[in-house]
Amino acid sequence: MAAILGAGVALPAGATMGHDGGTRLSVRPAGGDDLTIIHNQEVLDPIADKIREYGVSSDPAFSDLLVDPLDTTITVFRQGDPMAGSDILGGYRAVAGQITISFQTAELTSREVSRLDATLIDVATTTNVFGSDVASWGTDLPGGTFTVWYAETSPESGINTALSADVKEDPDLANLFAKVRYSKMVGQLQPASRTADTSPYYGGSLISPSGCSTGFSVRSTQTSSYYQTTAWHCIPSNNHTVNTGAGAPLGTVSSEDGYTDSSYIKVRSGASSAPRIFDGAYPNGTQSKLVVGMSLPNAGDRLCLSGAKSYARCNGQLGTGRTWTLPKPTGETTTASGSLISSFDGTWLIARGDSGGPVFRNTNGNTQALAYGTISLVSAQSGYCPSWMSTGSQCGPWGYITLARDMASRHNVYFNW
């Protein structure tokens, strides 16, 4: 790990800063208190987003950043000498305002990490190598060593062979892949699945402790950060920590929107998302499909749904626009907006536990998906659940979904990259 070159000093007790049009928010001396740490995180996150936006747009050496709500500091990772470029560093400090930022050396820029991600996702999609041979990839620290983890049965040469066509045609890409480290998994690799997802994360997977589903992998149009969506009504509050179905850390909720019944889970540092959804019918928990864009709603459209409880179902038909009321676990309520969806064959369509899961339309010979929306509410009735579901499961033939177009416009995210 590179040495920190700029000392991070917390604001003094009682210090205040301007935020969002003059609202005064205080950064508290943490001292390990959970509520104070959450408060500081709420103050620091929007500033970190603005710093990231500045880095992506104005600093070619920008890699990533880390927020420390305990010390109330933000660390910016930059490639090469992190103190080079006084004008750029001045820009970071201007955006940070009264929050102290420090700088640390990174091996890769954010653009380089994104290109490595995109190339590996492309190879995984076209060769089906991911999910059977490659466990995951990403940086171990922001801008740090880029590692590809693979199974013992899949030698490094096999991955390199799959990559060779793309890499050999592009000298810049070849230089990038020269920095990649390959590491064998110990023991037999278990493919990522909707009940135990791993980085890069897919939509349609189980999350804990809520027992709901992720919807789509999305990226910010402003900062390029990775997010997993889920339902607003599944998450107690902003800054809530979310785990995979296996209990491994996934990320932290950074923003919410009751109108679209959506929460945005900012994927943990060192991990990423891929624009894919799990789309296998029960019991196939590993099959996935590439999301290639977004589709606009039309009443009568026949659609597929994919939740952690029901797995994939393609018996949905879109109805008319609706609004409905939803409660959070804390008792807070909201009015959500979207559309009615019903099963066109009279069987079950949605189960409790599918909330937040993706609604999509198949395209390109059913090999790819267009994002349509996410599952919000199920009409739970007796007698609709299939026999393979656990005792006590609740299912229904109709429900409500929120729409991808509203999520994209209200939160500046996109569904494919």
UniProtKB/TrEMBL annotation:
Gene3D superfamilies: Trypsin-like serine proteases. It comes from the Bacteria. This is Trypsin-like serine protease. It comes from Nakamurella alba.
